[in-house]
Every structure is written in structure tokens, then in C-alpha cells.
Design brief:
Layout: E1 2-6, H1 13-27, E2 31-36, E3 50-54, H2 68-83, E4 87-91, H3 93-108, E5 116-120, H4 123-126, H5 135-144, E6 147-150, H6 153-162, E7 169-171, H7 178-181, H8 187-193, E8 199-205, H9 213-223, E9 229-235, H10 240-250, E10 256-260, H11 265-270, E11 274-277, H12 286-293, E12 297-301, E13 316-319, H13 324-335, H14 338-352, H15 357-375
The structure holds ligand GMT.
Length: 376
């Protein structure tokens, strides 16, 4: 089967998931064609049956806003025609589902039918998508997809609540490659970060407002008052200067390291004891799942789909959005005793297994087969 995958190529969860899905499908023998404006960050190395098609958006002095969606739809048409694609799987509705609809209509005129599967990831529905500037196009293009999937039950419910969707939305959870993320901690790395055997606390995100980075710092500030710890902040984004300033104000800079965007997240998770994710909303929280697979307990908000992966008192704890007090109390409860921490870490590993790549990717394959069998 020849499959086109359209996604954001950045460090965001939707792009990561789409890239990992493409790689897993390629390992199973599918021909995978990524159609994105940049090489996806997790698409490294050479795999004979993975192809990358860049969407180029030519500029012109008239364009204050270069028409990306038009360039994307045209690239889709070109790639489908020239590589005989059987199916297009778009991740994140805006603008991918609308561009896919346009490509599909163009190809229909040539007698070629191309099934489109749209996977909803979160902010495409809950934050950006429901804004009335985008909503009519988002609702229309989701409804025009041949199949719709959401990465959690919560996102499925949010989609029905916010849009008039006439079709069934299948939940296919995000996944993690347990083997890849079950790394042994690199002792030398751990020692550099925590030279005196301190606990290591991690946060990784795109540092947008929705992630509540200030809460991360305040929670950590409360933890170190009782548990010797170091904090690693992975990623970058608009809230980073505020976070650095806050660390200076709280005089905790010696205990906090901002390490920027990182490729080898499995090494980061492997040395971590606790992952903090106090977000305003997470449709799923892929970073929390990857952290659990790497053996870190999680303390998070109870927003969105997080209750679908975090089991309080087993692999972590949750509290209401903004409840820094309880999140820090829970974190200390996990971190104080070696034996308690070891149990939470082990439970985190065990609970991540439910979302192993081997359990989830076949669900996408099953969905693809329905459409390719019906329409080819
Ligand atoms: O978290 C982000 O802001 C990035 C965003 C994305 O679309 O790349 O992540 C969303 O998709 C991830 C993969 O499905 C989910 O794990 C994240 O929870 C979701 N983010 C939000 O809902 C805020």
C-alpha cells in the first residue's frame, strides 16, 4: 500500500506521532510518502521505502500571506498522481483536512478516488479549530474525510461538543515504542545533571501558554524545599523567557537547566524520576506517555485526556489545573522515599505498555484496509 502522510514537521506531538506512525508502517513494508514543509524532526536516517516531499510555497510581492494551503493541496495532487498513492492520512485538521479535500476533488475529476483519513490531535479542535475564523472550514473538512480518528476519548467528545460532526469518530490512542524508550540511564549523564544523587524532574513541551510553564517552576520550587532535586526543561517556545526570569526571581537557577529542543528524548526520560505536565489542556499528553515508558512517574493536571493515561496513586497523580499546591504535595509524596519512587517508576513503565506501538499501529492498518479494499 502506498500511503501519504501529512503533518506538521516540528517537535509538536502531532508531528511526532505522525512521523513515528510512518516509520512503523514503513518497517512493515508499506511505502510511506511524507508531505510536509520541512523534513519532520523525528525523520532521521535513510529508509528505502520512506519518501519525503517538500511543500514549497513560492512567494510573490502581492502575497502578504503566501497561500500555503493551495501549495499543500497542489503538492498532494502531484505526489498522489506520480506515486500512485492509495490513501492520504492527514494529522491535525488545520489546514491539512481542507487541503486534502481540495486534492481529493481535483483527482476525482480525473477518475481517481483517494480516501482521506483525518486524525484530530487536540488544539486543532479545542483551541484553534473552534475559533470562528476557522470553524466552518474545519467542521466541513472533517465531515468530508472518509474516516476520522481522535487520539483520546476526551478529544472525541470535545469534537462532537464543538462541531456538528455527522460521522463516527474512532478513538485510536497515541502510542510509544516501549523497546526504544526502555533505555538504561546513562550514569555519566545523570551525574552531570544531579552530581549528588538528587532526584531529576523533567518537563518537555513547546513552552506555549497552554502548558502553564510558570506552574512547572512553582511546583519545582516547592519540591526542592523538601527533596533535593534538579529540574530539566526540554523544548523551547514563547514562554521560555518568562520561565527563565521566574527562576531568577525565585533564586533557583542553580537547580534548573533549560536544555532547548532535543532529539534523543529517550535519554532524557531514562535519567528522570518525575515528569511534570500541569497543562491547561492536553488531548492526550504524548510526552507524559513517553516519559512513563522511560520509567518516570507523572504529576499532571487532570485536564482533557490525561485521566485516560494517568492512574492516581499508581503511575502518578493529577490535580485540578492551576492547583500548584496539590501537584507539589503529590510530587513530594512520590519522590521522598526511594522505595515509593521505585514502585511508581515501575508502574509507569507497566502502564505505558498498553499504548505500545505494537498494539496501536495495527488499529490504523485495519482502518486503512477498510478504505483501500472498498475503493481500489
Ligand atoms: O501540545 C501541543 O501543543 C502540540 C500538539 C500538536 O498538535 O502537535 O499536541 C497535541 O497532540 C499531541 C499528539 O496527539 C497530544 O499528545 C497533545 O496532548 C496535544 N496537545 C494539546 O491538546 C494541547
Amino acid at each position: 500500500m502506498n500511503i501519504g502522510i501529512v503533518c506538521y514537521p516540528t517537535f509538536g506531538g502531532s508531528g511526532v506521532l505522525a512521523t513515528e506512525l510512518g516509520k512503523a508502517l514503513a518497517d512493515k513494508g508499506y511505502n510511506i510518502h511524507f508531505i510536509t514543509y520541512q523534513q519532520p524532526v523525528r525523520l532521521t536516517g535513510f529508509t528505502p521505502n520512506i519518501y519525503y516531499h517538500e511543500v514549497r510555497v513560492p512567494t510573490y510581492p502581492l502575497f502578504d500571506f503566501p497561500p500555503y494551503e493551495t501549495a499543500l493541496a497542489s503538492t498532494m495532487v502531484d505526489v498522489i498522481r506520480n506515486n500512485n498513492l492509495d490513501l492520504l492520512h492527514v494529522h491535525y485538521a488545520i489546514p491539512h483536512a481542507a487541503a486534502a479535500y481540495m486534492a481529493k476533488k481535483i483527482l476525482e475529476q480525473e477518475g481517481r478516488r483517494i480516501p482521506v483519513i483525518t486524525t484530530l490531535h487536540g488544539t486543532d479542535i479545542t483551541l484553534v479549530g473552534k475559533d470562528k475564523t476557522y470553524a466552518p472550514v474545519v467542521a466541513f473538512s472533517i465531515n468530508q474525510s472518509d474516516a476520522i480518528t481522535a487520539v483520546s476519548q476526551n478529544l472525541r467528545e470535545q469534537t462532537y461538543a464543538n462541531f456538528n460532526i455527522e460521522k463516527e469518530i474512532d478513538v485510536i490512542y497515541n502510542f510509544v515504542d516501549i523497546i526504544r524508550f526502555s533505555k538504561k540511564p546513562i550514569d555519566a549523564f545523570r551525574k552531570v545533571i544531579a552530581p549528588n544523587g538528587e532526584r531529576i524532574i523533567l518537563h518537555a513541551s513547546n513552552f506555549r501558554k497552554i502548558k502553564r510553564i510558570a506552574d512547572v517552576i512553582h511546583i519545582f520550587n516547592k519540591i526542592i524545599k523538601e527533596v533535593p532535586s534538579k529540574m530539566l526543561l526540554v523544548g523551547d517556545g514563547p514562554e521560555r523567557p518568562m520561565a527563565e526570569e521566574l527562576c531568577r526571581e525565585l533564586a533557583i537557577c542553580d537547580h534548573v537547566r533549560f536544555v532547548g529542543k532535543q532529539q534523543d528524548m529517550e535519554e532524557m526520560y531514562a535519567i528522570s524520576d518525575l515528569f511534570l505536565l500541569p497543562s491547561e489542556y492536553e488531548s492526550f499528553g504524548l510526552s507524559a506517555l513517553e516519559a512513563m515508558a522511560g520509567g518516570a512517574a507523572v504529576v499532571s493536571s487532570n485536564a482533557g485526556g490525561l485521566p485516560e493515561i494517568i492512574k492516581p496513586g499508581y503511575n502518578g497523580y493529577m490535580a485540578a489545573v492551576g492547583d500548584v499546591e496539590n501537584m507539589s504535595r503529590y510530587a513530594k509524596q512520590i519522590l521522598k522515599e526511594d522505595s515509593v519512587l521505585a514502585q511508581f517508576k515501575e508502574n509507569a513503565r507497566l502502564s505505558a505498555k498498553k499504548f505500545d506501538i505494537g498494539n496501536i499501529v495495527p488499529q490504523y492498518e485495519e482502518l486503512y484496509e477498510k478504505f483501500v479494499l472498498v475503493h481500489s
